[in-house]
Amino acid sequence: MNYMIYKPVDFHNHVSGKKGKLDKKEAESRLEAAEILGIDKVCISRPLTWDSPSPEEFRAANEITLSAMSLFKRFIGFCYINPGYSRESLDEMEKCIVKRGMSGVKLYHQYFICDPALYPVMEYAADLGVPVLMHAGKLTDPLSQPRLSNASHFIRAVKMFPRTMIVQAHIGGGGDWEWNLRVLEDMDPSAKFFIDTGGSVVDNGIVRRTVRAVGEDRVLFATDGGMEEGIGKVLDAGLSENQLKKIFSGNFYNIMSERRVK
Amino acid sequence: MIFDINTSTGHWPFRKVSNENIGDLEKMLVEKGIGGAAVVNTHGLFYKNCQDSNLELAEMVSKNPFFTGVATLNPLYPAWEKDLDLCIKDLGMKGLRLVPQYHGYGLSSHCAREILSASSSAGLPVFIPSRVVDVRQRHWMDTGQTIDVREIGNFSLGVAGSRIIVTECAIYASQVLGTDNKPLYPGLFFETSRISSALGRELAILVKGLGADHLIFGSGAPFKEITPALLRVKHSGCTDEEIRKISWDNGRTVLGI
């Protein structure tokens, strides 16, 4: 299977660094791995995982992403914000997306995806026509990430923010993926909902069943850093050429075509 | 040709796993270009008397020479010494799996040392999975315990001449190589299905530090998809000779087949 003809776009990956400074060597290593596996473009962000990152902290995190984008054209940046700082988050989205070419918003587990605190940033993302990628999972140890969004939160979120393209992160990110898929069977067919395939979990059937649960137009290829896992589990899903084309890159470019700002 | 050191047959009770029947498993492996495999019986995790799972496995393998049987025993259960002897002499098992996280003992316990010692004296390699499935998605009745590679390494150091194949473990060079880049645990062999390859070149670094003889291809089928494991070796950056050893020679050599 020569999947490289579909020019895969990794919808969910990261760069690292400290105090606003990119770890260039690590970023190069990530791109080299993408090159080896025939991944054409890589969406990146630098989310902060603690309870409530300050505006100064998320601005510095985004500088890391912006540095990577300016050095390597194959990186597509996503703007990380903490929606608890509403005004500062909107300013950061304007800076990163409108002025400096980022392509989406990345949220971490500071809030559930259906928290009313998200209204301003979700509405602004809809105005800009960019997707919001939310860290997600159904952990069997929920105390480790008490505000981690699972599929039931996304079901509510698409009703609260019907204009916004919402992406549930890494179905293979660890957690009960079957639970998530059973809940997503009830997703509103008209909702602007997507899910990415990233994460290290390569359980037999995980991608095939994701496609069956939500439909091939909503599934986005991703690695979240697990490069061989990312490619391999999509190839093993028994999908048609047309489905592979959509998942590896077609659905991504459809989302990007919604962008309303230059 | 590829030999897979990490496959399972038998029923997994906590989610539906396709191809857990040994015939379907063989078909799944052959479709991916795999020419032989070591196989354990999943029932051995759950039966109190796990020798029954070995008898089941021996019967299946006797009808299917594609597979090499690996026994599962619990050193807390009576008559394991007799069972081990039977597994080697009569059932043709070429390895022994220990699963302390399912059978309720620690690797530092006397019983663990005893069974490792007995199996080493008989020339049998021991398999220890760091985990069987990802515990972040475990069933509420399944174990939440994983075993760290350093714990397995220290276990191996306690019995001279022991050989342990660590499966289902995301290993990094910093865990198994000393500051002088020499192996910390010479008796350990590592199955490759969870070792990062293209990103960070971890697999190639391990090959350089441990020697290619200590890395063995494994897929984790049928629990896991196979292509991710194949891509890891294919894109490891290792030489053709090293890839041949990892993919075919090492698994067969360590099992003595």
Question: Could you outline the blueprint of secondary structure elements for this entry?
Answer:
The complex is a heterodimer of chains A (262) and B (257).
Chain A: E1 9-14, E2 17-18, E3 21-22, H1 24-36, E4 41-45, H2 55-71, E5 75-80, H3 86-99, E6 104-107, H4 119-128, E7 132-134, H5 151-160, E8 166-168, H6 177-184, E9 193-196, H7 206-214, E10 219-220, H8 227-235, H9 241-256
Parallel strand pairs in A: 1-4, 4-5, 5-6, 6-7, 7-8, 8-9, 9-10
Antiparallel strand pairs in A: 2-3
Helix pairs in contact in A: 2-3, 3-4, 5-6, 6-7
Chain B: E1 2-9, H1 22-31, E2 34-41, H2 51-62, E3 67-72, H3 80-89, E4 95-97, H4 100-103, H5 110-121, E5 126-129, H6 149-157, E6 164-167, H7 173-176, E7 188-191, H8 202-210, E8 215-216, H9 227-234, H10 240-255
Parallel strand pairs in B: 1-2, 2-3, 3-4, 4-5, 5-6, 6-7, 7-8
Describe this structure in words.
The complex is a heterodimer of chains A (262) and B (257). Chain A is of the alpha/beta class and 262 residues long. Chain A has a single domain, classed as TIM Barrel. Chain A contains 9 helices and 10 strands. Chain A has an 8-stranded parallel beta sheet with strand order 1-4-5-6-7-8-9-10. A two-stranded antiparallel ribbon of chain A has the order 2-3. The model of chain A has no long low-confidence stretch (mean pLDDT 97). Chain B is α/β, with parallel strands linked by helices. Chain B has one domain: Metal-dependent hydrolases (TIM Barrel), CATH 3.20.20. An 8-stranded parallel beta sheet of chain B has the order 1-2-3-4-5-6-7-8. In chain B, helix 1 links the parallel strand 1 and strand 2. The mean pLDDT of chain B is 97. The chains are: A alpha/beta (262), B alpha/beta (257). At the A-B interface, helix 1 and helix 8 of A face helix 9 of B.
